[in-house]
Design a protein that fits this description.
177 residues, alpha+beta, 5-stranded antiparallel beta sheet, Alpha-Beta Plaits
Length: 177
């Protein structure tokens, strides 16, 4: 016995409308995917900040991030280990083992403020602006005169280029014979 299948003449479903017109559906989307993002935590100051000061300011901001988003964020150290608990640094060396602190001196004649920053990685399903807008994180950033920005980390810029200086001589500094 053969069955005749008639074409479906019913109204299009919401999924059909989405495919045809590109409209978004009102249904909740699937679970968001965790992504690793490289973040630059930058502090500005009129006078030069000491490494000790930067480590305490960064500790305050990282603690606020971890407390606000306990299970939704994972902070990674330079050794690619997850930072489960954030403790106040007892000295500069303890903090430098976890995160490298970089500095740029200011110039009062040119009215350039000094900057200090640390670069770290986070794994999360949120955007960086969501993290910045969280009230406790926002307050910690304002207290420390800091900001969180996305940092376009590429391995070839930071790892391969310095290696070239060790492999061979630079033609600029090599005298010809």
């Amino acid at each position: 016995m053969s069955q005749n299948t008639a074409p479906d003449l019913s109204l299009p479903t919401e999924d059909d409308v989405t495919v045809i017109t590109g409209k978004s559906t009102s249904r909740p989307s699937a679970a968001k995917v965790w992504q690793e993002t490289v973040v630059k935590l930058r502090f500005q100051s009129k006078d030069d900040l000491l490494t000790k000061d930067v480590s305490y300011l960064a500790f305050d901001v990282l603690k606020a991030i971890k407390q606000s988003f306990q299970t939704r964020i994972s902070i990674k150290t330079n050794a690619n280990k997850e930072l489960h608990t954030i403790q106040a640094p007892t000295n500069d060396d303890d903090f430098q083992k976890l995160f490298r602190v970089s500095h740029r001196r200011g110039n009062k004649a040119k009215k350039i403020q000094s900057q200090s920053w640390i670069i770290f990685r986070i794994c999360t399903d949120m955007t960086l602006s969501t993290i910045r807008k969280e009230q406790t994180v926002h307050d910690a950033l304002q207290r420390s005169h800091g900001n969180l920005v996305y940092y376009p980390w590429t391995e070839d810029v930071h790892d391969v280029v310095p290696l070239g200086f060790f492999v061979g001589p630079l033609p600029k500094y090599t005298t010809s014979t």
